[in-house]
Amino acid sequence: MRCCIAKLWVICFALILGGVLLGRSNVASGDIVPKPAQLPAAPEFDSLQMIDRENGWAKRAAAVFRTNTWVFDANDILRTTDGGRSGTCVLSARPKDKLAPFFYDSETAWVTAVFDEATNVTILRTRDGGRSWIGAELRQPKGIQDCCLAFPETNTGWLMLIPDRGMNSSPGDLYRTDDCGANWRRVNSTEGNPFEGDNYTQGEFESQHPYLLYGGGIAFRNPSTGWLWGSMASTTPGFLSITRDYGLTWQVQTLPLPASLHDGRMVPIGLPHFFPMGGKDGITVAEFWPTDHDSTSFCAVIYSTHDGGLNWHPTTPVKFCGTWSFVTVRKGWIWSAEAHSTDSTAPVKGTLYRTDDSRAPWRPVNAEKSLEEYLTHGEDIVQLDFVDDEYGWAIARDRDHLTQLLKTTDGGRTWNATERKMQQ
Fold this sequence. Notes:
Elements: E1 15-17, E2 20-22, E3 26-27, E4 45-50, E5 56-60, E6 63-66, E7 69-72, E8 75-80, E9 86-93, E10 98-103, E11 109-114, E12 120-126, E13 133-139, E14 144-150, E15 157-163, E16 173-177, E17 185-189, H1 202-205, E18 216-220, E19 226-231, E20 238-243, E21 251-252, E22 264-268, E23 273-275, E24 281-290, E25 299-305, E26 313-314, E27 322-326, E28 332-337, E29 350-355, E30 363-364, E31 380-386, E32 392-397, E33 403-408, E34 416-417, E35 421-422
Parallel strand pairs: 9-35
Antiparallel strand pairs: 1-2, 3-13, 4-5, 5-8, 6-7, 8-9, 10-11, 11-12, 12-13, 14-15, 15-16, 16-17, 18-19, 19-20, 20-21, 22-24, 23-24, 24-25, 25-26, 27-28, 28-29, 29-30, 31-32, 32-33, 33-34
C-alpha cells in the first residue's frame, strides 16, 4: 500500500456560504507530496483506536525527547490493517498544527485541523480508509484552542470549538452537520451563560439551560441525545451535562454515590460509551472526591446505564488510578498503577484487573507475561484498547513521550511488544 501523505497547510480550498466559510475538495494526498525515498522510523503513538483485530487508526505523538532535546515530528494520522504491526500515514500536518480525529469504522473517519494561531478549522473526511479526503472549512472570529468531534451516524455529526481562554473561563461553540461534514451550522454556545468560574450554586447549575454551560468534550448516542464533559474553569470540578433536544438545551447529570461512599461527591472523568454505538447499554466513569482532602478513600466508580444514559447506576468502586477499556457494558479491563513520581525512571508497578460483570468485584488477571514486565525507565500504561474477549492493545509511555505498543491475544494473560513499521 502506498504512503498517502497529505500536507494540510496546502489545503486552501474555500467557499463562502451563508456567512460561514465552507469549502469542499477532493484531496488525494498522494497528489500533493511524492512518496519518500525510504521508510521513516516507527512513530511514537499519542493514541490508538482499533476497530477489530486487524484494522485500526492511530495518532502520532508530535514531540518526543531524544538526544537531550525535544524533537518535533509531523502530526500524523496512521492506519493499520495488520493488527498494529505496520502503519500507513494517511494524513500529516506540521508539528505545531493541531489534529483531532474521530474514527467511525475501518474506512470512515473525520479529522479537524487547526493551523498554528489560526481562527479557522478545516474538517477533513474520508470513506476509503484515508486514501482520499474531502474537506470543509469553518471560520471563527477568535483563535481556536481545541476541537472535538462526535458522529453518532455517518450523516449527522457534531463539532465543539473551544476558543482561546483564560483560567477562569470555559467558552465553547457547538456546531452540527447533516451532510457528512460538508456544511456546518452553529446550534449553541456559552454566550449568554451567566455562570463563570465558581459563581454558581449546585441547585441552579443542575436545572435546564438554553445555552452551553461550558466548553469541553462531546459524545452523542444519536442525533438528539448527547453529553458534554468539562468544567467552568481550570480550578473547578468537572461535570457531565446531557441534551435530549439536539443540543438546544443542557442539564447537568448528577451521578449517585454508591452506598459504601460518604461525605464527598462524584466527579466525572470522561464521556459515556455505548455498546454497540448508538445502543442503550453504556458506561461512564467518575472519581470519588471525599470532603476531607486528606482522606485515603479516593476511588473510581464505573456507572452503567440500560436506558440510553437517562439514568446511571454505580457499580463496585475500584481503588485505582489508571486507564480502562470496555467491550460490553459488563466486560472490561482496568490498569491500576501504584503511586509513583512522573519524573522517576524507576519501574512502575501495577496490576491489570478484569471483570465479566461490572456489578461484581474486579479480579486481577492471572498474567503469564504481565504488562508490568515492560515498564522500565518510568514508563506507565496510558491507554488500553480491547476489541473483544481476547484481543487488546496497550500503549506504554515514558516521560520523554517514547512509547511501546503491547498486544495480547488471550484476554490480558500474556503481552508481547509489537515491532512497528511504516509502510509505503
